[in-house]
């Protein structure tokens, strides 16, 4: 253990914060972790620099020179959890090539430190789940975690593959996770390595669920052809939101946003089935497509990006909020419409406009206060809105803003009366180059009531089952 800690310390990657370092903040958000570049703890071995292969890592089951292997060790015999047909020895792609690999080429590399960019982070109990979608080669695990009881005071802790190195290889690429109140972690595996101009579609996108008590995979549901209208649809499965019906853990619905071909995929756990919802409001707004983030100017066309659900009403329906990333507007529809397979197209509502440059990735609702929080990439900020009031700039408030340390806030979620935010400087990684001598990835947290105290978002603290009709929303009695 001493040698393990020493390895990180010698490389300047593990530091115990001083009292002043503990107070790093943006607005009222406290910095929890930050990294210049990411490192890993794999089977007790510190991985702190590029590695061509995993041959020197203990406890491996398989390795390959130019492929990723996926092990299916789950003994669940349900039809939807069996190994998909056509796999070769548990590998959903071709067998390893015998051709020599040029060490200077990225294909086949086990760990390329620079290519690892955090996208999502979610706190569940004493663990923080961290995702790194495979947008390049050299990413050891797409789903990882940090044990907060061990690394709660480490500024740049190593990531540990989840559930472990061997089982993590069953996932190809995950953007974000969401936990439900039944102790389950939900993900969408896109099945794709998104190499620029040469994406590799390795397996059918699937909803994958883990039991957090046992850390076992309990569901792998492959999305249907009808859920995936375009060849490029898998690259747009950016987020998942879960709602439980009437407190029944067996009756859960998942809503998956598709930012590329503009739809929402709905999955019913009880029915073990999925379907796709389409609406014009899922599309991007072309007048909001020009962005300047992290010193880079570019034009994007991302559609519906984030779905957030409100408290369940007496009828079992929830207010469901959503927005395209390239837009400043927010929309709503009843969860019961999405669950109906054939949603009434007139049931969708325009809630209002957040204001100039308010393009947003993720958002989430704190039900006790009725306050929605937004991760705004357009103005490097986190903002809030009390859903009891009309949505307009006067009823929005920026809670934190920083062009360096909140550059591209890529994830936001509310848990335990706290707001957790991830920022990753993604446009610089895509269009330019990260400065690895500077901190590039950040995770923050703040108490909800501290954030909204004294702001326009403070107000009613009664959970609201739906929108007030006077605000253009719906109401079911």
UniProtKB/TrEMBL annotation:
InterPro entries: 6-blade_b-propeller_TolB-like (IPR011042), MRJP/yellow-related (IPR017996)
Keyword Isomerase: no
Localization of this protein: Secreted
Gene3D superfamilies, per the entry: TolB, C-terminal domain
Pfam entry (one): MRJP
UniProtKB keywords: Secreted, Signal
GO CC, one annotated term: extracellular region
Signal peptide: 1-20
Coiled-coil regions listed: none
Main localization, broad class: secreted
Family statement drawn from the similarity comment of this UniProt entry: Belongs to the major royal jelly protein family.
Protein name (record): Uncharacterized protein
Phylogenetic placement of the source organism: Eukaryota, Metazoa, Ecdysozoa, Arthropoda, Hexapoda
């Amino acid at each position: 253990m001493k040698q393990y800690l020493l390895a990180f310390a010698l490389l300047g990657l593990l530091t115990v914060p001083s009292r002043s370092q503990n107070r790093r903040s943006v607005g009222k958000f406290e910095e929890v972790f930050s990294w210049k570049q990411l490192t890993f703890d794999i089977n007790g071995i510190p991985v702190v620099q590029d590695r061509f292969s995993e041959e020197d890592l203990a406890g491996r089951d398989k390795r390959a020179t130019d492929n990723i292997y996926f092990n299916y060790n789950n003994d669940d015999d349900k039809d939807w959890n069996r190994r998909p047909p056509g796999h070769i020895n548990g590998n959903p792609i071709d067998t390893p090539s015998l051709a020599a690999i040029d060490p200077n080429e990225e294909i086949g590399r086990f760990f390329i430190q620079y290519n690892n960019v955090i996208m999502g982070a979610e706190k569940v109990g004493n663990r923080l789940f961290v995702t790194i979608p495979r947008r390049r080669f050299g990413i050891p695990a797409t789903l990882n975690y940090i044990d907060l009881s061990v690394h709660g005071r480490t500024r740049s802790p190593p990531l540990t593959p989840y559930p472990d190195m061997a089982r993590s290889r069953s996932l190809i690429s995950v953007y974000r996770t969401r936990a439900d109140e039944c102790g389950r972690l939900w993900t969408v595996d896109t099945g794709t390595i998104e190499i620029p101009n040469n994406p590799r579609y390795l397996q059918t996108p699937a909803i994958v669920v883990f039991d957090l008590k046992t850390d076992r995979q309990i569901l792998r549901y492959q999305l249907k052809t009808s859920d995936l209208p375009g060849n490029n649809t898998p690259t747009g499965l950016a987020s998942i939101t879960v709602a439980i019906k009437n407190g029944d853990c067996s009756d859960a619905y998942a809503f998956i946003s598709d930012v590329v071909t503009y739809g929402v995929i709905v999955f019913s756990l009880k029915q073990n089935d999925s379907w796709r919802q389409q609406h014009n409001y899922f599309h991007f707004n072309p007048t909001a497509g020009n962005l300047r983030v992290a010193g880079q100017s570019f034009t994007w066309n991302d559609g519906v990006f984030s779905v957030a659900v409100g408290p369940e009403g007496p009828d079992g329906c929830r207010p469901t909020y959503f927005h395209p990333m390239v837009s400043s507007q927010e929309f709503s529809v009843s969860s019961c419409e999405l669950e109906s397979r054939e949603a009434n197209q007139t049931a969708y509502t325009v809630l209002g406009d957040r204001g100039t440059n308010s393009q947003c990735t993720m958002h989430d609702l704190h039900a006790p206060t009725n306050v929605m929080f937004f991760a705004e990439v357009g103005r490097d900020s986190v903002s809030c809105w009390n859903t009891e009031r009309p949505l307009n700039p006067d009823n929005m408030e920026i809670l934190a803003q920083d062009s360096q340390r909140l550059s591209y806030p890529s994830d936001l979620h509310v848990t335990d009366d706290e707001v957790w935010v991830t920022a990753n400087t993604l446009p610089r990684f895509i269009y330019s180059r990260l400065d690895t001598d500077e901190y590039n990835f950040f995770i923050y947290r703040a108490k909800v009531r501290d954030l909204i105290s004294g702001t326009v978002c403070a107000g009613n603290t009664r959970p609201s089952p739906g929108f007030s009709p006077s605000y253009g929303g719906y109401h079911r009695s």
